[in-house]
Each structure stands twice: as C-alpha cells, then as structure tokens.
Specification:
8% helix; mainly beta; 17 strands; 54% strand
C-alpha cells in the first residue's frame, strides 16, 4: 500500500478526531470557561454554584433564582493556542497555532416571586489551527488546517421550591460548523466541510445548606451531531459526533465576610464517544476575596485524560489537563461589574506510542501543548 492510499484511509479518523480536538482540546474539553471573568479566573470552579448573575443561564440554570430583578452579562474571551510536537524517531515534528475570540451574552429576568427566566449565547468550543508542517510533521502532508465553530443558544428557567432549594432547566440549540484542509500542495488537495444544529438540555439545582454554605449540582445531556459533509472524497459523506454527557457538583462556603472558598468535582462520559475513550474525572478549588468595591479571584482545576498513549494521535493530543486562573472584578458607580481575568491551561505532554501504518500516529510527545485565555466581561 503506498503512502497516499494510507493517508486516504485515515480520513474518517482524521475527521472524527478533528472535530473532537477542535471542540475539546483547543476549546477546553467542553469549555469550563464561559467567556466571563469569574469563570476564567476560578478555572471554572465557580460555575456550578453561581447564583449572582445571568451567566447562570449557561453555568447552572438553578442559579437564576439569585437574580433580584433582571441581569445582563456581556463577555469576550481570547484564546491563544500553541502546540509543538516532537518526533522521537525519524522525521520532523510540527507546530500548530491559532488565535480565537469567543463571545458571551446572557440575560435573565425575574417573572414573579418563584420564577426567573433567561436566555444566553456562548461558544462551548472552537478552533482554527494551522500547522506549519502538516498535523503530523514529516513527509505525509495530511491535515494542514483544522477548523470548527461551536455556538450554543440556551433558554433557561429556575423555580424557587422553598427558602433553601431552587431547581432549573435549560433547552439548548447547538450549532457546529467544521472545515478540514487536506493534502494542501499536492495533487490530492481537498476540503471537507459540514454543519448542522442539534438539540440538547441541562438540569440544575442549588441548595442553601446554611447562611454561609451553598451546594450546586448540574447535569448536561451532551447531544449528537449528524453532519452531512461536502467533499470530493468518496467517503466519509456523513459523520456522527456523540457529545459526552456530564455531571458537576460544587460547594461554595463563605469563610468570613471577605473570603469565599469554592470546590467542585466533575464527570464526563467520554466512553460514549467511542470505545477508545475513557470517562474523565476532574475537580478544582478557588478563592474569592472582597476588597471594598473589588473582588479578587483565583482558582485551579484538573481533568483526567480520556486517552492513553496507545490510542492518542496528533489530531487529538488529549492528555491530563490542568488550569490556573486569576482575575479581578470592580463594581462601578453605576452598579455594573467590570471584570478581567487570565487563565493558563496545560493540555499535557500527550505522549504517543506510534503506529507505522497510521501517519497521524507517529511516535513522539508534545514539548508545548497549551492555551492562554484572556477574558473581559461586564454585568449590569
């Protein structure tokens, strides 16, 4: 079998893995970063117990019960993505880089004493990576650019059951748009494109354990995208992507009038994607400090790897991930809150055992595999 035929046989794998790599590794594995300063600064730890503003539409719909009258949030986060793959055998490695802006909008309004409703739009993942020496490096010029845009449109409502418990639910319409550039500069140059909408939903609960302690719980169904692909290749013409369902639990405890401590735990069902993947577990801690009209926040979180080195490839270099964030929010004279935050996310060494029959699975590791996040948000 010649080299180019082997490349064509890997296209279904490239597309399948490329979709997940875009929404997951560069987008942040079902993005815990919601495009708000608090989410980025606390490394996502504050999301599930947030009941202070309209971003709860996305984070945990039960948290909308904390909105007093109405609330609006505008946010923008910038992702700077970089990777450096080093081959441990013969051949050159490759570098990948991208810059991506991801917006956030949410609005919530109290309807009566018991009900609050809200809408939101944000990007749960996205990437447009260009590789300087193809995705795998070496002589096989396979994937030159890997692009995806994901947008969630969410409608949520929360119900105050009693003084301690609130419940919430969301209906989600998720749009996926993918493009993969293949074999550029060769006689087999091609582009594969596809897009569609898919439905999903989420559920949530907030329980006020005491005056200083609250518990948060959320469930996200994930979803399924059935993409019709535009390509000159005989296959693939369609592609199914099973989005993993997830559960998150969190605690926020007010240590003093100034300090709040937060902790969370997460589970994501990556085994739902295919049999090479394992479910992932994660968790994190965060602190918030109130300094007059400033709120200073910082957090750390980690997720286990859904892949081992035998199943990992250069299109999807997922490994154990960790995040560290910090940020500040200032309450303005108008009552609006302006926030800015930074987060570093490590995607791990992502070691690959290597397979001589698969050009996207060369033996090697990543000397650099990371994302920088910068986020600005305004709530009013």
């Amino acid at each position: 079998m010649n080299k180019n035929n082997r490349s064509f046989h890997t296209v279904p794998l490239i597309m399948l893995a490329g979709t997940i790599s875009s929404t997951v590794s560069a987008g942040g594995l079902s993005l815990s970063q919601l495009g708000t300063a608090q989410s980025v600064a606390t490394a996502g730890v504050a999301n599930v117990t947030n009941n202070s503003d309209s971003s709860a539409v996305i984070a945990n719909p039960a948290g909308l019960s904390g909105v007093k009258s109405d609330s609006m949030m505008l946010g923008m986060q910038y992702l700077d993505i970089g990777s450096e793959f080093e081959r441990t055998a013969v051949g050159e490695g490759t570098s990948g880089s991208a810059g991506q802006f991801m917006p956030h909008f949410s609005y919530a309004k109290r309807l009566n004493d018991d009900w609050v409703a809200g809408i939101g739009m944000h990007s749960p993942g996205g990437l447009g990576i260009t590789y300087d020496n193809s995705v795998a490096g070496g002589v096989s010029n396979i994937v030159n650019e890997n692009y995806i845009s994901m947008v969630n449109v969410t409608a949520s409502a929360s119900y105050q059951v009693n003084d301690k418990l609130s419940l919430g639910a969301s209906l989600i319409a998720q749009y996926a748009d993918i493009r993969v550039e293949l074999f550029q500069g060769t006689g087999q140059e091609n582009t594969i494109e596809g897009n569609n909408w898919a439905p999903s939903f989420s559920l949530g609960a907030i329980y006020q354990l005491s005056a200083k302690t609250k518990l948060g719980l959320s469930y996200d169904y994930g979803g399924k995208h059935d993409l019709d692909l535009a390509t000159r290749l005989p296959e693939p013409q369609t592609m199914d992507v099973n989005w993993p369902q997830s559960v998150e639990f969190g605690i926020a405890h007010q240590i003093s009038s100034d300090f709040t401590f937060m902790v969370n735990a997460t589970w994501q069902q990556w085994s739902r994607f295919n049999d090479k993947y394992s479910d992932t577990w994660g968790g994190g801690i965060a602190l918030s400090y109130q300094l007059r009209d400033w709120t200073l926040q910082s957090g750390f979180s980690v997720d286990s790897s859904p892949l081992n080195s035998a199943n990992r490839d250069v299109v999807l270099p997922l490994d154990q991930q960790w995040r560290f964030g910090l940020g500040a929010m200032k309450t303005l004279d108008s009552g609006s809150v302006l926030g800015i935050a930074y987060q570093y996310q490590s995607l791990g060494d992502a070691e690959i055992d290597g397979d001589v029959y698969n050009p996207i699975q060369p033996e090697g590791y990543y000397s650099d595999n990371r994302i920088h996040f910068v986020s600005v948000s305004l709530s009013f």
